[in-house]
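Take a look at my tokenised protein here and describe the backbone shape.
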Amino acid sequence: MVRVKRGTASHKRRKNTLKQTKGYRWSRKSKYIAAKQALMKSWSHAYRDRKNLKRAKRSLWQIQIAAACKESGLSYNKFIAGLKKFNIEIDRKILADLAKNNPAIFSKILEKTK
């Protein structure tokens, strides 16, 4: 059986890891073990923070919708309950955008839910 030298594969793997850590500080950009640990940590933070970003955006949309509802004298939870009652399936992102940029359309939606 022919001997397989694995140097090229491991060299390529290390090179790719160091390429991904370009711009990191101190030894994390130049030393393989430190770079690998930094990458694993950064990937886990990126995964976690993608979820946190969605959470933060949704709460921002809720605040914007609540502020628009308050102007017409309706609370946020009654507005959402009215949407569900009349089967109006518009998500919070669109509702917040309507409240901000098209108040006339948002007020028509408000009148339907009352």
